[in-house]
Amino acid sequence: MPPMDFQPILDDINAQLRPLLGQGGKVAGYIPALARVSPLQFGIALRTCAGETAAAGDSATRFSIQSMSKLFSLTLAIRALGETLWERIGREPSGSPFNSLVQLETERGIPRNPFINAGAIAVADRLVSMGDAKAELLALLGRLAGEPVLMDAEVARSEADTGFRNAALANFMKGFGTLDNDVATVLDVYFHQCALSMSCEQMACAAGYLCRDGRHPLAGTPVLSPAQTRRVNALMLTCGTYDAAGEFAFRIGLPCKSGVGGGIVAVVPDRLTLCVWSPALDGTGNSLLGRRALELFVEKTGLSVF
Ligand code: GLU
Question: Which residue from 152, 137, 259 is spatially nearest to 197, judged by alpha carbons?
Fold first, then answer.
């Protein structure tokens, strides 16, 4: 692969998109603490497998990573449980909204994949069975980002106060025997993982093991095996961006995981990880400008898995 100077490319994307801030999309309104975030922000950062970095815009501002946390809770669960994790969680795109109850009923409490809310709650239950899940997540992310990462208590409280659908999903799964632990304990972990607060720069570093066959971005030690890493990337590509995963594969062609805080992390296997953030979301719940930024990145660099 020829070396590429990424900094001018990110500067260019930032310059192209910044004038569009405030012109479309909506900040997630259903979690009050997120509804207060200014939509007039855009950040982008990347880290290559060799450790080079580039960043532009609000790349150092911390934001609520929300569903992007599902990548890391899944990583912890795969590390601890290997194949047995899949006895209670599927691996198919859901084709329905991320907080939908309908499929759970027909599929007898087994969530379609680990990236919809029901799936992530089932993963959180597995982590609760193994110990202090919140501390484990914080420790993993701190090690991966190379600096401490925070959980925003206000966002977690806001989620808990308004998380009626998540409580419904958890109770429903408990009724089917998918969850072993107390529903309130599992939801507490889930709400706190969603409330992790990180910058694009931290996220681009932390997700680095996903472009390096599972090796830690800074230390080089194994986080996941190469085979496990391929599977996480496959799930990101097929299930990582809500109901727009097909469109993301079509237009961007990179494994991605988004969150309703407006962040999206993308992996170019064997090359780099990239994180974009802009809080205003499109109708599919993905960051409007974040998605546009990824399209521009692929257009300008030709980097895609296809
Ligand atoms: N905390 C959010 C929820 O459970 C996460 C949603 C997301 O980012 O997809 O509704």
Answer: 152
d(CA 303, CA 107): 37
Contacts with 81 (C-beta within 8 Å, 6 or more apart), sequence order: 126
**How deeply is 107 buried, as exposed, middle or buried, from its count of CB atoms within 10 A (0-12, 13-18, 19+)?**
middle
CA–centroid distance, residue 246 to ligand 1 (Å): 20
Q: pLDDT tens digit string along 133-168? A: 999 999 999 999 999 999 999 999 999 999 999 999
**What CATH number should be reported for the domain whose range is 7-301?**
3.40.710.10
- Residue spans of the domains in the chain: they are 7-301
Per residue in 257-279, pLDDT (tens digit) is 999 999 999 999 999 999 999 99
Residue nearest to atom 2 of ligand 1 (CA): 66
* 81: its two tokens: 């449980």
- Furthest CA-CA distance within the chain: 54
